[in-house]
Specification:
The complex is a heterodimer of chains A (193) and B (325). Chain A is built from 8 helices and no strands. With 193 residues, chain A is mainly α. Chain B folds into 2 domains: 216 residues, P-loop containing nucleotide triphosphate hydrolases (Rossmann fold, 3-Layer(aba) Sandwich); 69 residues, Alpha-Beta Plaits (2-Layer Sandwich). In chain B, the strands form 3 sheets. A 6-stranded mixed sheet of chain B has the order 5-6-7-3-8-9, with helices on both faces. In chain B, 45% of the residues are buried. The chains are: A mainly alpha (193), B alpha/beta (325).
Chain lengths: 193, 325
């Protein structure tokens, strides 16, 4: 989604028309990322919310108002967190190139590739379990487990798992790196056609 | 040469629509614009230069789409890169096809109206499309339009916010002769309304039709600015070519050579001579006196090189303007 909305504008010159209006580049970027996030949230947040509402109406939901609100908060945090994570990672890649296909392919390769590579390194090459910090496929899922205070279902090297602070730090780190890349690229962005 | 007018370095003011001061821009070591300074006020100003001269880079710099590596750009005294709100007064017609191909013209122009914070975007969109002779109710998408129609849609989106500054990069590309005349008239009327209209072109006869105020850009530098006839007059290190039609060309040519006013004299026909002179004023006096002394009839004394093409060729030093038609 991010390559579609960001790369296309730069390739077609529409970015020039946007930025030749009173719109600041940060307003432009914020609006585009919000649009991408909204789409992603229908996947990362929508089903969880429906599940919570469904369970609640059937009497299987959290017991009491406080528990229900706590669970709702966790659902929102995990859903928004994962949506934000992938939105920013893909936007960072899309900010580097104006080629939509290249950005999309790089995103898929990065996510799937780090997933396979880290699994191999830890399981087969006995690398430290902290390599899971660069596993873009499973790190967001780890994050969701930790938000819900659940034992992780993702194991590296048998039964070894990363600590919760490590997961949170890695998750936040990736978001900050992505934000830095996007900010750097768009603060210097020049419309050259 | 004194033709490349020395810029008067004054501070940009809020009353000056466009003020460019010492702007340079380069891309990966290639200098696109080099130390350019000019002010542009209300009316139509044509920016002329060959392809690759730096015209589009200059226009994008004025709009804040590209930041200058050196120098400053101010619109009404404000930096468009740091204060995008000033772009509320700007309408840009980009050179490339930047339109949403799948949108209707109305939707595309309306988007520009919304981006510029126009109070009634629907009404403004209809008015802008009507001003370029486009049907606001056309259901077709922009991709099904001809090149000329897409150009007019781009112009409509630039006019939709009623801008004080209109910047058009090669706006006549792809238009048929009738549409060109219509758009040139439209630019003139916008200029007459007191708006600042900057139009770039690499086509000399187009530029002449936009008016006499030009910015000549060559190899990233501002070669000259102002009225191109005044620019020619200022080029006092280059002789003016003048054709004289008379019933006694040989005698008049001899008189001119004898007067030492002419750099060179050629008899080019049974009733005409061509001469090169530096001081046109003195030449006119001398030729009139010589004709009277010789009892010759002067049918015509006409400059041959005060058209824009001659000025352009002098300024860029090209025998035939490269890339300029």
């Amino acid at each position: 989604m991010a390559p579609e909305v960001l790369c296309t504008d730069r390739r077609t010159g529409m970015l020039g028309l946007y930025l030749a209006s009173p719109l600041s580049r940060w307003s432009y970027l914020g609006a585009k990322l919000a649009a991408v996030s909204m789409i992603l949230l229908t996947v990362t947040l929508g089903p969880s919310l429906l599940l919570l509402i469904g369970y609640s109406t059937q009497g299987y939901g959290p017991v009491g108002f406080t528990d229900w609100m706590l669970t709702l908060g966790r659902v929102i945090l995990a859903g928004v967190g994962i949506g934000l994570f992938y939105t920013l990672i893909s936007a960072a890649l899309a900010s580097i190139t104006s080629r939509r296909a290249a950005a999309s392919a790089t995103f898929v390769i990065l996510v799937m590739g780090t997933g396979a590579l880290v699994q191999y390194l830890v399981d087969e090459a006995r690398a430290p379990v902290e390599w899971g910090m660069v596993n873009l496929l499973l790190l967001p899922i780890e994050f969701a487990y930790r938000v819900f205070g659940q034992p992780t279902q993702i194991y590296y090297g048998g039964f070894t798992t990363m600590s919760t602070p490590t997961v949170y730090a890695a998750f936040a780190g990736w978001i900050l790196v992505a934000l830095a890349v996007i900010g750097n690229r768009y603060s210097r962005v020049e419309v050259t056609k | 040469m004194s033709a490349a007018a020395e810029p008067i370095m004054t501070e940009p003011t809020e009353s000056m629509p466009v003020s460019v001061r010492g702007v340079s821009k380069w891309f990966k070591g290639v200098v696109a614009v080099s130390d350019v300074t000019f002010d542009i006020g209300p009316g139509v100003t044509a920016m002329l230069g060959p392809n690759g001269a730096g015209k589009s880079t200059l226009l994008r710099t004025i709009c804040g789409l590209t930041g200058p590596d050196l120098g400053t750009v101010r619109l009404f005294g404000r930096d468009p890169r740091k204060d995008p709100s000033v772009l509320r007064h700007v309408g840009l017609v980009p050179q490339q096809e930047g339109t949403f191909p799948h949108m209707r013209a109305f939707d595309f122009v309306r988007l520009a109206a919304v981006l510029h914070g126009v109070h009634d975007p629907d009404a403004a969109t209809r008015a802008a499309l009507a001003s370029v002779e486009m049907d606001p109710d056309d259901r077709r998408s922009v991709e099904r339009y001809s090149k000329g129609m897409r150009q007019r849609v781009k112009l409509a989106q630039a006019l939709v916010n009623g801008p004080s500054i209109i910047i058009a990069d090669e706006p006549l590309n792809g238009l048929d002769p009738r549409q060109r005349v219509r758009l040139i008239d439209l630019f003139h009327s916008l200029g007459d309304e007191g708006r600042t209209v900057i139009v770039s072109s690499h086509v000399l006869d187009e530029v002449e039709r936009f008016g006499s105020r030009v910015l000549v850009v060559a190899q990233g530098r501002l070669a000259a600015e102002g009225d191109f006839r005044a620019i020619r007059d200022l080029m006092d290190d280059r002789p003016h070519q003048i054709r004289v039609r008379t019933d006694r060309p040989a005698a008049l040519a001899a008189a001119l050579i004898g007067s030492e006013i002419a750099e060179g004299v050629r008899v080019t026909g049974p009733d005409s001579i061509e001469t090169e002179v530096i001081d046109v004023g003195r030449f006119r006096t001398t030729i009139a006196r010589a004709a009277a002394d010789l009892d010759a009839t002067l049918v015509e004394v006409a400059p041959l090189d005060d058209d824009l093409e001659s000025v352009f060729r002098y300024l860029v030093g090209a025998p035939g303007p490269g890339g300029v038609r």
